Amino acid sequence: MNFAHIDGVVVSTDHWINGERISSSRRFDDHSPTDGGLLAQISRGTQTEADLALEAAAKAFPEWAATPVSERAKILQRMHDLIVERADDFARVESADQGGLLSYYLGERGIRRSASNYSAFAEMLLERTDSTFVDSTFHNQVSLSGAGPVVLINPWNGPLLLESWKIAPALASGCSIVLKPSEWTPLTASMLADVSAEAGLPPGVLNIVQGFGEEIGALLVSDPRVRRISFTGSAATARAIAAAAAPNLTPCSFELGGKSPLLIFEDADLDIAVQTAKRQYSNAGQVCLIGSRLLIAEQVYEEFLDRFARAMEGFVVGDPRDPTTDIGPLIHHEQFERVDGFVQRAKADGARPVFGGGPLRDDGSLYYQPTLLVDMEDGSEIVTEEVFGPVLTAQSFASEDEAIRMANATRYGLTATLFTSDEQRAERVAKQLDAGTVWVNCFWVRDLRAPFGGTGESGIGREGGEWSFDFYSEVKNTVTVK
């Protein structure tokens, strides 16, 4: 077996298949975005590992699906408890691998939030009841059962958290799993395999295969043994997955990108709105749900920009292990070049930085200045395309109708945030925004029983609560004569 030592934590660098560590002859390098150092050399999956994982999942599925609900819930709760017990280890490894703030991962919204999905779905599983429909003649009994082996493909921007959004409901529903973590952030998924085994999850129910999307990912999503595919990432990759799944009619759930608006009306509490605008730089802007388009009532536009610029003074970009750091690096040189390309093209087209506007320093590191751009044309690339970095745009609107039109002027529809003290306006505007989630005078909160997902090119389907159970289940209606 092969291991890496990450900030005092020992992490296996091999696949997890049928309850065992499996090594590949080929490996790939995993570098830390913090300083570019080599963290680990990871087993690189091939057709062999794909077949082994899918065979293990298919073999384990019938017994897991037949496992009593109480036992499945007990294992999920145990997974929660073990992650919380090892939260500090998970936090150090995730920060090193992904570049996110160590203080964030150590906090309640970090590793512990990831763990909470397992306990939440354990509770929901125990509380679920099947629907019945009765009339004078017939009795209809609806029942749900696990759909079968599922493939889960996870992104790099919130590895452990977004894995929990998929793994917890899939296990609760009675599915067996093949997980492919991002090749840029594979380490905490490997740690999760150890947790699952200690929690009592039977061999083959959770399998983790590492490697590249165009190699191992493509093999997994095109296999006829797979009965559900859940993917979080780009629309382009989702199209490729959908095409590969189509011959097998494999249902897919896609949580994709966003170019979400943050609307600030003239009667908003500007202090709270400014603090919320600062939060859009969380994780160096590498968050699908951020409100990257600030749409501000013209009556308070200049005042807001001035307050925002002053609030950003002293904002620290640096080592994510330092507790005084506000945001860390971008994940990878490829992502860094993508983000900077958007900014430099926007500036060439006439956009003006209120602050930021380029790399933090010219030394090959992955740190980028938090950037706010103004004076863009409607419909320009920087206003319509997802940057996925610490880059916001600001535009003014003259009326409520114009604000709604501007907010809906993209092909995305993941989230929207609005600030106003007028409750009727809030209700009126929220109904007209094209978004799967609308936050009113708040941001980035969700009950784990509530749905998350988007419209348009922000995805297909919803994750969370009953919506997850529906996706990972087959639904049967048994009709009998009374």
UniProtKB/TrEMBL annotation:
The keyword NAD applies. Transmembrane segments: none annotated. Pfam families: Aldedh. The active site is at residue 255. Signal peptide: none annotated. Keywords: NAD, Oxidoreductase. It comes from the Bacteria. Residues 24-477 form the Aldehyde dehydrogenase domain. The keyword DNA damage does not apply. Gene3D superfamilies: Aldehyde Dehydrogenase, Chain A, domain 1 (3.40.605.10), Aldehyde Dehydrogenase, Chain A, domain 2 (3.40.309.10). Belongs to the aldehyde dehydrogenase family. This is Aldehyde dehydrogenase. It comes from Rhodococcus globerulus.
